[in-house]
Description:
This protein is an alpha+beta fold. Helix content is 62%, strand content 8%. Helix 1 (13-25) links the parallel strand 1 (4-8) and strand 2 (30-33). It comes from Rhizopus stolonifer.
Amino acid sequence: MSKLTLVGAPFSTFSRTLRMAFDYLGIHYDFEITMPHTDLAYKYNLFGRLPSLIHSNRVLFETACIRDYVDAVFDPRLTPTDLETRLKMHQMISVLSDYVFHQVIFGVAKRREKYENEQVPEETIVERLEKATQTAGKIIGAFDTMCSPEGPFLCGKELTWADYFVYPPMADLYALPEAKFFQEKGPRLYKWFKVFEKRQEAIDTFEDTVADIRNKKRSSL
């Protein structure tokens, strides 16, 4: 098999999605670390985003595209053969990539990070984020109803790509001061998260994620 290289960053949630999936599937790869919008990022992605995948002479970007390629070329185990489970998986990934990222990650997490870097007082941050946090809570609550009540995975008894797409942004979200609020809004989602975080591929890819960086900052205070 030709050499496989993943171009990404530890803090990139979609990079982590692929890293965890590769670890689980036993796919060997090189991890070339770069920041978004660097020369290296633009070399493999027209928009300078992360991650990108290089396999032989083929260059791929957009995680959904890479996922399909992994299924077709390496191992399809993470995509269910059962139609209902497969539809549920695609639906969860789509909702995550749209509503959750736009309203929760960009609406709350990224804005909080920006304010903290600007050294805005915590009371002011909470006030500025109040409306966005309430909106994000509704999104998490709705997303929670999509999670399988039986588990142990998001789509039921079968581990799918949905688990690997959803876990990284949730790990970062639960590292925020607003964590308890989101845990209460999505109890089923949080229960799944607490089980999934013990998986080896989650542990092995934790270092230098946003959650790890926030934890280290708290420990140093």
